[in-house]
Structure formats: structure tokens, C-alpha cells
Write a structure and sequence with these properties.
The chain is an alpha/beta fold. Helices cover 52% and strands 12% of the residues. The longest helix is centred in the N-terminal third of the chain and has 20 residues.
């Protein structure tokens, strides 16, 4: 199984929505091709948009993201604009490296 990371947080809701759509479309195409993909942004964005008003910041989701990475064999990074500056993406890459998971870039 592969963990699909990408930048998400941004002050503009429209940027978050574009990022969500891009990573969700990629995840869906990979699943359709027979790959097992875990997309935390697809999962978290849907939950954050509910009436429960969950936080969107990586710090809130970090523990869950680490559990997801633990369950995966690889971390793939969708290199949308902002990925190098993304606190979440950089933390996910560091954690993957620390736990011996290969990291690839799309």
C-alpha cells in the first residue's frame, strides 16, 4: 500500500479545494489501475468539511498520518506548488525516512 502525500494547508479555501481535487483525482486513477493507495488529504478534507468542524492544520492530523504511514510500504509525494514549504509534507517525508520507507515524487 502507498501513502499519497501532498500540500494542503493554505489561507485560501479555493487553494485547499484545488489541492484536494488534484490528490483525490490522482488517488482515484491509481486505485482504478489496481494500486492500493491511502490518501490522507482525501480522507481528512472530507471529514473536516462536516458539521463537526474538525481542524485542517497538520498538527491535528499528524498522529493519524503517522499511523497511516506505518501501514504503508511507500510514501509518494504529489509535488503540487508549495510541497517544499509544506510543514505536513516535510514531516511526512522525514517520518517515512526515519521508519525506512521509500519516498518517491510525482
Amino acid at each position: 500500500m502507498k501513502y499519497l502525500a501532498c500540500p494542503y494547508s493554505h489561507p485560501e479555501p479555493s487553494v485547499r479545494e484545488i489541492r484536494f481535487q488534484a490528490v483525490t483525482d490522482l488517488a482515484a486513477s491509481k486505485v482504478a489501475a489496481g494500486e492500493h493507495i491511502l490518501s490522507p488529504i482525501t480522507h481528512g478534507h472530507a471529514l473536516a468539511m462536516t458539521d463537526h468542524k474538525l481542524p485542517m492544520e497538520f498538527e491535528y492530523w499528524e498522529a493519524l498520518c503517522k499511523k497511516m504511514i506505518d501501514a504503508c510500504d511507500e510514501v509518494m509525494v504529489l509535488t503540487l506548488e508549495g510541497w517544499k514549504e509544506s510543514v505536513g509534507v516535510q514531516a511526512e517525508i522525514r517520518y517515512a525516512v526515519e521508519t525506512g520507507k521509500p519516498v518517491s515524487y510525482i
